[in-house]
Amino acid sequence: MLTEGAQMPVAAKTPIELIESVYANLAENTAMGREKLGRPLTLAEKILINHLASTDQELERGVSYVDLRPDRVAMQDATAQMAWLQFMTAGLTEVAVPTTTHCDHLIQARDDGKTDLLTANENNEEVYDFLESVCAKFGAGFWTPGSGIIHQVVLEQYAFPGGMMIGTDSHTPNAGGLGMVAVGVGGADAVDVMTGFAWNVRWPKAIGVKLTGELSGWSAPKDIILKVAEILTVDGGTGAIVEYFGSGAESLSCTGKATICNMGAEIGATTSLFGYDEAMGRYLKSTGRENVSDAADQVAEHLRADQGVLEDPGAFYDELIEIDLSTLGPHINGPHTPDLAREVGALGDEAIENGWPTRISAALIGSCTNSSYEDITRAASIAREAASHGLTAKSKLLVTPGSEQIRATIERDGLLADFEALGATVLANACGPCIGQWDRSAESGHTPGKANVIVTSYNRNFPKRNDGDAATLAFVTSPETVIALALAGDVNFDPLRDTLTNDLGEEVALSVPVGIELPPQGFDPGRDTFVGPPADGSSVEVKVSPTSDRLQLLEPFAPWDGSDYEDLPVLVKARGKFTTDHISMAGPWLKYRGHLENISGNLYLGAVNAYDGYEVGYGKNQLTGETEAFPEIARSYHEAGQGWVVIGDENMGEGSSREHAAMEPRFRGGLVAIARSFARIHETNLKKQGMLPLTFADPADYEQIGQDDRIAVRSLSNLAPGKEVEVEVTQPNGSSWSFATNHSFSEEQIEWFRAGSALNIIRASF
User: Fold this and answer.
1) Which of 71, 77, 169, 581 is catalytic?
2) Is the CA virtual torsion 532, 537, 539, 541 positive or negative?
3) What is the mean pLDDT of the chain?
4) How does pLDDT run across 363-405, given as a tens digit for each residue?
5) pTM of the predicted model as reported, rounded to 2 decimal places
6) Which helix (H) or strand (E) element contains residue 181?
7) Which of 320, 208, 335 is nearest to 275 (CA)?
8) Which of 83, 134, 481, 557 has the least CB density, counted as fewest CB within 10 Å?
9) Residue 404's domain spans which residues?
10) Can you tell me the distance from the alpha carbon of 235 to that of 580, in angstroms, rounded to the nearest whole number?
């Protein structure tokens, strides 16, 4: 593959030369793949095979590990800090592949877009200066605060059909809406690729979703992924790429496809994607990339699954789901998990039955998932009609544009004014309330700790996810349904059947929302927010103050000493959901994402202790016998040189790609993580940082481990792919018992463990 690196300058769009280089070998490599596997290929297989580092690798789904060469890397400002700090230790003078950093996570939502952006620039000046300077020094592109959410900017500027990228955010698969294999990873994976190493990953399984019929009425693309989440649950896509096809898929807009792929992160999928079609071509042309559309048209037959796969999908996908869009109603999922689904008209009765509040305290539209021009026009059509009938929002209404380009375009076209007429506040082009960066302290009538309901067009709804308040019950749905519910002010409202009463006492039935796929006048790019690197960055100084509380240079983790692990206390045994939000909270802790020691102050603060008698985030310090917060226990063990074990339930590490959830326990002396199962990204992150993630061979063994037990891990010198690892448990009375665990290490990944981290191997290479 041709890469920018030293050969071509980093630009605000993917250079056509790079895309043409990807397409140049596509036909040949696709033919090779068919011959190698002896069958037709899915779309994902075509793209992955075209990006293999070598063609002599085994390609067994769910088993083989392969080396891939992504076309680019994208990072958001919260995760980029640690990734760049790791890269700086590798000894390179520039990145080996096109790389961009996007400032979208650190902007807190409180007042309005302009005010919040000014505040963010002031409060985060040190971090923004670091990111801009490190990009300049090592040849990466920098998107300034206010540019927009990374995934929307990538879709507008960088994504292309048949390409492959990795990004340090779990919702990177958004680019699958443009037919790109885009995978969320931890920062260590990104550093591998940025340093010129191949990306090592397990060859994914394949899940096919056949869409027939066509959406109508209040149903939207968001409802498709909400339905898929209900079917597959939060871990049903783990280790698999979800591929959408069928006549229903071709009826969707490109941005509608992106919505579906974006939220595929909520089912644990490696990524999701659609085949190239006319809708993608229209979007490329509308965003000023006619040359990309022309190039894709020339290889279109290779940018979709083979005909044999489409004719008999059950024979080629490991799992097949069929959804008739003509019968799909508008859905709303939550609270506390994105797979708890029902049609919107059923939520009111369910809320009453469960004792949830029915009044809606806040309604929020936008985000990386649903802020396309089509999304906004459908929601605005409802807002405009409501205003004409004398209706106003009964709930606080917030609008988050996905990018500067979207903001400028919808402002020009009068769509922001439609929302403001209902009393809406327009926030910055950033993540804000989607990731816990929402300060509600000035919100009239809101009481922290009191149960309240919010409805959003976002993607994730774990407790504390939006406003840091565990009492907030968050539901996710489409933007148009959010607007309808905001007008009602109550979840006990069905826009398909119910009416609203205006100030004159008139009954108003909302019309079916009407959307416009792409702006008739084209997109308005708005402010120029891209900063390219200088031709030579060698003289650029990257400043990290030794006294900073937000940035801290890294020290390598120690390599494995060759001994078995003995006499390890259990720092935490978590019950139920143990997401990355539980392991390393976001919200106010985002400010420390570049300072490993300080952010370790949040370690396991959200963990629900499996042992009775403890508040959330608290457990027993085995050195003192005292009840303490988990971060304090971890600090105590670390200072005493005491290694320890963490134990998780199902799908440990679900959610964000943040590698801090692996680096923090490693920094504080964590050695082993044992769980019933792991989320893909978190498991990889643990491996990358030199920890030992193991799964119970018998999940029932989880229940048998007491809080005062000590753990030993045997025969580590014989660690090998596919070989069980024995764990011995010694109880306080001296008796012991053993259980078997499994792992997913490849030979290469075992070397990461022995070296102390994957990065230690990279350091040794330069």
Assistant:
1) 169
2) positive
3) 96
4) 999 999 999 999 999 999 999 999 999 999 999 999 999 999 9
5) 0.92
6) strand 181-184
7) 208
8) 557
9) 331-508
10) 14
The one-character DSSP state at 379 is H
| Angstrom distance (rounded) from CA 579 to CA 651 | 8
Burial grade of 53 (CB within 10 A; 0-12, 13-18, 19 or more): middle
* Residues 503 and 641 grouped into a single domain: no
Handedness of CA 453, 459, 465, 470 (dihedral sign): positive
Is residue 474 situated within a structural domain?
A: yes
DSSP strand pairing (670-675 vs 692-696): parallel
Q: Which of 104, 116, 339, 439 is catalytic?
A: 104
Catalytic residue (one of 395, 656, 744, 746): 656
Is 105 a known active-site residue?
yes
Q: In sequence order, which residues have a C-beta less than 8 Å from that of residue 195 and are 6 or more positions away?
A: 87, 90, 92, 95, 96, 762, 766
Q: Are 622 and 708 in contact (CB under 8 A)?
A: yes
- Which CATH number goes with the domain that contains 580? 3.20.19.10
Catalytic residue among 460, 582, 593, 638: 460
CB 274 within 8 A of CB 244: yes
Given a contact cutoff of 8 angstroms between Cβ atoms, the answer to whether 41 and 33 are in contact is yes
Here the tokens at position 84 are 């760049």
Q: What is the dihedral of CA 403, 404, 405, 407, to 10 degrees?
A: 90
Percentages helix, strand, coil for the chain, rounded to the nearest 5?
35, 20, 45
- CA-CA distance, 535 to 516, in Å (whole number)? 41
The answer to whether residues 624 and 712 belong to one domain is: yes
The span from the CA of 316 to the CA of 39, in Å, is: 9
Q: How confident is the model at residue 4 (pLDDT cuts 50, 70, 90)?
A: very low
Q: Report the candidate in 226, 215, 289 with the shortest Cα–Cα distance to residue 250.
A: 215
Show the tokens assigned to 410: 């919808």
CB 187 within 8 A of CB 290: no
Q: Token digits for 350?
A: 């369910």
Instruction: Please choose, from the candidates 417, 437, 526, the residue with its C-alpha nearest in 3D space to the C-alpha of residue 156.
Output: 526
pLDDT at 655: 87
SS3 of 252, please? Answer: coil
Name the active-site residue from 51, 105, 635, 710: 105
Per the annotation, the verdict on 412 as an active-site residue is no
| Contact by Cβ (8 Å): 188, 659 | yes
Residues shown for the chain: 766
Which residues, including other chains, have CB under 8 Å from residue 83's CB and lie 6 or more apart? 75, 168, 187, 188, 190, 191, 194, 659
Q: Which two tokens stand for residue 515?
A: 């959307």
Q: How far apart are CA 635 and CA 84, in angstroms?
A: 25
Closest C-alpha to 393, from 493, 517, 478, 464 = 493
Is position 169 annotated as part of the catalytic site? yes
Q: Is 87 found in the same domain as 48?
A: yes
What confidence score (pLDDT) does residue 10 get? 79
Query: Can you say whether the dihedral through the CA atoms of 342, 347, 353, 356 is positive or negative?
Result: positive
Q: In what order do the strands lie in the sheet with 99-102?
A: 181-184, 164-167, 72-76, 99-102, 141-143, 530-531
In a shared domain, residues 131 and 199: yes
Marked catalytic residue, from 331, 658, 680, 682: 658
170 included as an active-site residue: no
710 is catalytic: no
Structural domain count of the chain:
3
Say yes or no: 104 and 149 in one domain: yes
Tokens 């998932």, residue?
Answer: 369
335 cis-preceded (ω within 30 degrees of 0): yes
In this structure, what CATH number is given to the domain that contains residue 399? 3.30.499.10
Residues 296 and 43: beta-carbon distance below 8 Å? no
| 3-class SS of residue 266 | helix
Residue 704, SS3 per DSSP: helix
How many separate helices (H) and strands (E) can be counted in the chain? 26, 30
Per the annotation, the verdict on 112 as an active-site residue is no
Alpha carbon 551 to its chain centroid, in Å, reads 23
In the chain the first and final C-alpha atoms are separated, in Å, by 22
Residue 618 host element (H or E): strand 618-620
Q: Mean of the pLDDT values across residues 621-650?
A: 98
